[in-house]
Amino acid sequence: MKLNIESPLFEFINTTVHFIALNLLFLITCLPVITAGPAIAALYQVLLKEARGENGYLCSNYLKYFKQMFFQGIAVFAIYVASLFVLVFSTVFWSSLDGILPAAAAAILALLSLIVISGMLYVFPLMARFQNTIRQTVKNSFIIALSNMKLTVLLLLLHITVISLLYLIPFMKIFMLMAGFAFFAFCFSYLFTKLFIKYEQEAEN
Predict the structure, then answer these.
(1) What is the pLDDT of residues 14-29, one digit of tens each?
(2) Rounded to the nearest 10 degrees, what angle do helices 100-129 and 181-204 cross at?
(3) Contact 174, 18 (CB under 8 A)
(4) For residues 32 and 35, what is the distance between their CA atoms, to the nearest angstrom?
(5) Residue 157 CB: number of other CB atoms within 10 A?
(6) CA-to-CA distance for 180 and 193, rounded, in angstroms?
(7) Burial annotation 57-76 (CB, 10 A radius, 16+ → b, else e)
(8) Taking the domains of the chain in order of start, what are their residue ranges?
């Protein structure tokens, strides 16, 4: 019996194996934690191309992009994590105090924390899709997050759902370790691809 390598079943198995390999590679390159920035950016660079139908070698391309965006990715990741740490710490501090002014300060800081998280959802896909300075990329992430509120809320809810499922369903932990990060990034890539089209058209005009 001949194996039909072009059959839907074979293509599904082949894609699944590649996604598992990509996911494991992503987790390995994230191990030092500080390298999570270039790892996420490289993951999106590979999967945004997949979402656009520009098929290629996932793992080899991932390693190439990881090296290309290594220093920029670390810098961007450090900026967001440091900003979020300061904001969350300040929010907790002010919320522990009594009075209207501390409560107002805590609310404002909590809102700023949410804005930083929203920007963080976009910054690595932006790094993957557009060539810009670190400053411009960070600036664009906030502009896009705030000017596309429906998508931003949807992305926040999707991330909250995934995190909630990790706590509620034990199998989700295994799935995330095996292929989950690559799978969800691939799903999000379709949303980002649709969003980025209008910015690409603006850049051309």
Answers:
(1) 788 889 999 999 999 9
(2) 80
(3) no
(4) 6
(5) 10
(6) 20
(7) ebeebbeebbeebbebbbeb
(8) 8-204
Inter-CA distances, 75 with 94, 102, 120, 129, Å:
29, 32, 13, 17
CA nearest to 80, candidates 42, 114, 119, 112: 119
Residue 196 in tokens:
């980025």
For residue 88, the tally of other CB atoms under 10 A from its CB is 16
pTM of the model as a whole: 0.90
pLDDT band (50, 70, 90) for residue 3: very low
| Residues 6+ positions from 178 with CB-CB distance below 8 Å | 20, 23, 24
